[in-house]
Design brief:
18 helices, 319 residues, 2 strands, two-stranded antiparallel sheet, mainly alpha
Length: 319
Amino acid sequence: MAGRKRLPDSLLAGKQLVDAAKRGDLAEAQRLLAAGECAAQSHRGQTALGAAAGAGHLAMAKLLVGAGAVVDDGQGPYTYTALHASIAAGHTEVVEFLVHEAGADVRLRSWSDGFPEHIAASRGHLDVLKLVIGAAGIDVTDPAGDPEGLCKTELHCAAENGAVEVVRFLLDAGAPVDYPDPEANGGTALHYAAGKGHRGVVTLLLDRGAGIEARCSAGATALETACAHGSVDVASLLLLRGADPAVIFRRTGERGGSGQEGMVVTLQQAKAAAAAAAAGGVATFDDNDDNGTRRVTRGASRRHQEFWGESSAAKGPRR
């Protein structure tokens, strides 16, 4: 049986340096560089500097930059530079070196994750976010200042990924809590947190004045978003904080379909959880409860009446 084909010398050299950089093997990297390897070498789209930065090897990053590695290499249709890699991994010292000593471009957008500040916010790396915001001179109070006007804000990114401390920092810094996402469907940070089931972030946003009935461009509120994603926990919280469930019954009646009926079932469960929480108890659910499921799949107006019972006071206090 024939053995595996040997990589061409050009590809083998690139792989060796990238692998050494990823391991943080300074001795091997120095040997390869002394033997004539180019510090800007890459293997299958990854540069040696990108590998070192993503792995947090500061000394290796300094060695490669000193030997001539291109700091912002990785641009093109699939832009992802060493700075993007180090931010995503949360390596603050490497980020600081690349930005303040190596001259990395902090306004270079990655192909998949937005600008550096969006990457840091999404990953919950607060120290890195502060560093990037300071270096780029970003005013978080003015999301409209985005150079392309197309990206989610740092607040959207943090809320979507449940990064509570980053959300808190941005709100403390004056980020507008209800700014609509210009990149996708006009949702607010509350929509993003609700859709992902991040109860802690939802609580914080509501405490800071987020509009509980704010709608995205498709007309959905945070409650509808939570129900659409099956998040009973967040939906019950929103109900306790005064979210109006009527929109779900109206929209179910308008559009129908199993997806919308599933939202009503989630809402029914959330109502039970909210009632239990208000009474200091714990609710349990049975997704296969024929009686409950069938009761919430009749006409929209009747569903609404059955959901709240005799009094609208059952909805709990509004904020």
